[in-house]
Design brief:
The chain is α+β, with helices and mostly antiparallel strands and 162 residues long. The protein has 2 domains: 1-80; 81-162, no CATH class. 53% of the residues lie in helices and 12% in strands. It contains 5 helices and 3 strands; from the N terminus they run H-H-H-H-E-H-E-E. The chain has a 3-stranded antiparallel sheet, covered by helices on one side.
Length: 162
């Protein structure tokens, strides 16, 4: 089997994520056929499932964010909470993207026991900022968050549910 570069893998993953975002109810066979037609190759079932789960969790968190926004507008008189994740999103969205599409870290759903992996695809500066935030969280006692894998273009965070 021919090896592909990291850029090619990211392009292929982005294609599938976009496909799942546009058509969340697409069948497994249809998605695999679309992938095979576009790239002329098959995809590892584990990677396929992870990408589908990621797209679904992004859709769920987008709905939650919309609900939070509406509830925040109702409670503007309350003192804002010191939420590291919301500050990270604000800084990541205010930084220039340099043409790269960044997927901010998403708060994982507590669906069951065991660690949850969060894939973050962002610019190198944003990943460095995220790494500093994770280090600060760990220093302040957050023992359930760690950086699992990291390159200069992406990072996998592992969050263990309590």
């Amino acid at each position: 089997m021919a090896r592909i570069s990291q850029d090619q893998a990211q392009e292929r993953h982005a294609f599938l994520l976009e496909l799942f975002r546009k058509q969340p109810d697409i069948s497994r066979n249809e998605a695999m056929d679309a992938y095979k037609d576009k790239f002329g190759a098959s995809l590892n079932a584990k990677t396929f499932n992870e990408l589908r789960e990621q797209a679904l969790s992004e859709a769920d968190s987008a709905e939650e964010k919309a609900e939070e926004t509406s509830s925040e507008s109702e409670s503007e008189n309350e003192t804002p909470a010191d939420d590291a994740a919301s500050r990270l999103k604000a800084v990541a969205s205010s930084e220039p993207m340099n043409g790269a599409s960044a997927q901010p870290a998403k708060k994982p759903k507590a669906k069951g026991a065991g660690p949850k992996n969060v894939f973050v695809d962002a610019s190198q500066e944003q990943l460095q900022f995220l790494e500093r935030v994770v280090q600060q969280l760990q220093e302040s006692g957050a023992s359930n968050l760690r950086i699992d894998h990291s390159t200069d273009r992406w990072m996998v965070l592992t969050v263990e549910t309590k």
